[in-house]
Amino acid sequence: MVGRVALLHLHRMAVRF
């Protein structure tokens, strides 16, 4: 599911900030 991948990517970006 693309939604699942997008959520993971967003979470990774959030952790970086």
Rounded mean pLDDT is: 83
What about the largest sheet?
Answer: none
Uncertain residue segments: none
N-C termini distance = 25 Å
What is the N-to-C succession of helices and strands?
Answer: H
* Total strand segments: 0
Number of helices: 1
Q: Any idea what the radius of gyration is? A: 8 Å
Helix/sheet category: mainly alpha
Task: Bin the strand percentage.
Answer: under 5%
Shape: rod-shaped
Brief digest:
Helices cover 88% and strands 0% of the residues.
Textual characterization of the structure:
This protein is an all-alpha fold. It contains 1 helix and no strands. It starts with a helix and ends with a helix.
Overview features:
single chain, 17 residues, mainly alpha, 0% strand
Describe the protein's topology.
Elements: H1 2-16
